[in-house]
Specification:
141 residues
């Protein structure tokens, strides 16, 4: 028991030290800070004409429209597939219900058949029993 208490106390001390150290500000070593890029001089800076800027904007706009159109087509395709999956699930469920209804209809038909057969058998046995009773007990005197 004392070993467990000693370990628990040691763990508590370590945790309290870690918590206290977390409040101190230690320097974090990571990637060096990136400085601001040097500005280019007038000679190094390439100048674009208005036509080039307009063509670049048109190309970017065209690419954006194509990307939007592809995304819309993919979204429509995904929606159609989801609708088809829901419809397939509904059809499977309907097929299951249909099979259950058919099984119950067969059971009802078999029960009716058995009921008719039992009724006919009871009528025949009742008639024969009545005749036997009449012959042996009433008519035999």
């Amino acid at each position: 028991m004392s070993k467990g208490k000693r370990k628990l106390r040691r763990c508590g001390r370590i945790m309290s030290i870690v918590i206290l150290l977390s409040f101190l500000r230690f320097p974090v070593f990571g990637e060096p800070l990136t400085g601001q890029l040097q500005t280019l001089s007038e000679r190094e800076l390439k100048r674009y004409s208005d036509l080039e800027v307009d063509l670049l904007i048109d190309d970017i706009s065209q690419a954006a429209y194509e990307a939007i159109e592809r995304a819309a087509v993919e979204a429509a395709r995904a929606a159609a597939l989801a609708a088809l999956e829901r419809e397939a699930a509904a059809l499977r469920e309907a097929q299951g219900w249909r099979m259950e209804v058919e099984m119950r209809e067969r059971a009802v038909t078999e029960a009716k058949r058995a009921g008719r057969r039992n009724t006919i058998l009871a009528a025949v046995l009742g008639t024969l029993g009545g005749l036997a009773f009449g012959i042996f007990f009433i008519g035999g005197r």
